[in-house]
Amino acid sequence: MSLYLIVGLVFLAVIGTALLRRGERGPTAPGWIDPERASVQELVLAGQKIQAIKRYREENGVGLKEAKEAVEEIARRLPGR
């Protein structure tokens, strides 16, 4: 019985430590976000450049070239880029 208790406590300690350290890693890698609800900047930060260009075109009524250039400028101005 005590062996199960020790194994259980070690398991809980490992899981607890992992959960506490998870927040220390910093931002996660860009992931997929819902393009219907995201802003252009959020899409750029998530690494979804094509979706960001589409969103920019919808919001501003511009052509593909102008939207692409605008999104690239937005990406350049973001911190850490």
Describe the structure.
The structure is a single chain. The protein has one domain. It contains four helices and no strands. With 81 residues, the chain is mainly alpha-helical. α3 (49-60) crosses α4 (64-77). The model has no long low-confidence stretch (mean pLDDT 80). The longest helix is centred in the N-terminal third of the chain and has 21 residues, at 2-22.
Structure at a glance:
The chain has 81 residues and is mostly helical. The protein is built from 4 helices and no strands.
How are the secondary structure elements laid out?
Layout: H1 2-22, H2 40-45, H3 49-60, H4 64-77
Helix pairs in contact: 3-4
Q: Using the alpha-carbon principal axes, give the shape.
A: rod-shaped
Secondary structure category = mainly alpha
Number of domains: 1
Tell me the total number of β-strands.
0
Rg calc: 22 Å
Total of helices: 4
Mean pLDDT across every amino acid position: 80
Strand content: under 5%
For the biggest sheet, the summary is: none
Low-confidence stretches: none
Strand and helix order: HHHH
Distance between the termini: 55 Å
Question: What is the percent of helical residues?
Answer: 55-70%
Write out key terms for the chains shown:
0% strand; mainly alpha; 81 residues; rod-shaped
